[in-house]
Amino acid sequence: MKANQNLLSHPLDRGMALLALVFLYLPVVTLVVLSFNANEVTTIWSGFSVRWYVDVMGNEAILRAARNSVLVATVATLVASAAATAAALGVVRSTTVHRTSVEGLFSLPLLVPEIVTAVALLMLFVSVGLPLGLTSVMLAHAVFCIPFAYYPIKSRLAGLDPALMEAASDLYASPWRRFVRIEMPLLAPGIFAGALLAFISSLGDFVISYFVSGPGSTTLPVYIFGMIRTGVTPEVNALSALFLLASIVAITVAFVVAHRLAGNKLAATA
Question: What is the Cβ-side half-sphere exposure of residue 195, based on CA atoms within 13 angstroms?
């Protein structure tokens, strides 16, 4: 096979790729289309309507759950990003033999089934007497979001040129000044990418939120689960479509910001 041959040049490859795309995106497209269905029966199309979006935007319970989700995701992202940045700096700069073991601990939450993490956190909060509510949900989300924020930051930090820090030290810059003036601007794309992963993971989490939430702290995924227990309704489709739109907007903003950060870095090094 030639090195420059198109991997999708074979008809079978193209067919498999097309089937994979259809399998991934057809349910999403169907959901969005049916969210504009005027009929109360989800599967019977009777005309275009935005009434379900109006109902969702006027439902105070849904809006409260959405506010809870955004608040929890924001706080969890800030805490997880700060902890992940500190952890990445410590691991990358460490020269001890336990470095690999410590780094493996950060990947453990990604390998452990989420139901185990949820039950463990629930038992911990009950044992220490922490009431189940927004605080418990924020703490739980901050814990499981740390690995999502850690690895992009760690990868970015490992790729930095050590000569930059050495040059700053030769110019008598203090460790804090080196971190603020050199490392932080260079780490910004990694921190932003990790924060975005943490935010999206927290926003869409259901299992942990379901176990550690209490009265008044229902997040949007938990609320959607409660709605579909009696069957899928057009309101569920509309709410899910809005949830999808929020994710697309977040990813688009991340792409634009990352592109600008990369452009600023190239301009600074030119």
Answer: 19
73-130 per-position pLDDT tens digit: 999 999 999 999 888 888 877 777 677 777 778 778 788 888 998 999 999 999 998 8
Q: ∠ CA(249), CA(64), CA(200), 5° rounding?
A: 35
CATH number where 127 lies: 1.10.3720.10
The conformation of residue 131, written as its DSSP 8-state character, comes to P
Is residue 79 included in any domain, yes or no? yes
Q: Are 73 and 199 in contact (CB under 8 A)?
A: yes
Domain containing residue 214:
60-269
* Phi and psi torsions of 255, nearest 5°: -65, -45
Does residue 215 sit within a domain?
Answer: yes
Total structural domains within the chain: 1
Residue-wise over 218-249: b if at least 16 C-beta within 10 A, else e?
Answer: bbbbbbbeebeeeeebbbbbbbbbbbeebeee
Looking at this protein, which amino acid is placed at residue 25?
Answer: Y
State the greatest distance between any 2 C-alpha atoms of the chain, in Å, as a whole number.
Answer: 73
DSSP per-residue letters across 56-112: HHT-HHHHHHHHHHHHHHHHHHHHHHHHHHHHHHHHHH--STTHHHHHHHHHHHHHS
Residue 30 lies in a domain: no
Q: Let me know if residue 52 belongs to a domain.
A: no
Q: Is 78 helix (H, G, I), strand (E, B) or coil?
A: helix
Note the Cα 14 to chain centre separation in Å.
31
Q: Is the dihedral of CA 252, 256, 257, 258 positive or negative?
A: positive
Tell me the whole-structure pTM to 2 decimals.
0.78
CB 164 within 8 A of CB 39: no
Question: Which residues sit opposite 48 in a β-bridge?
Answer: 37
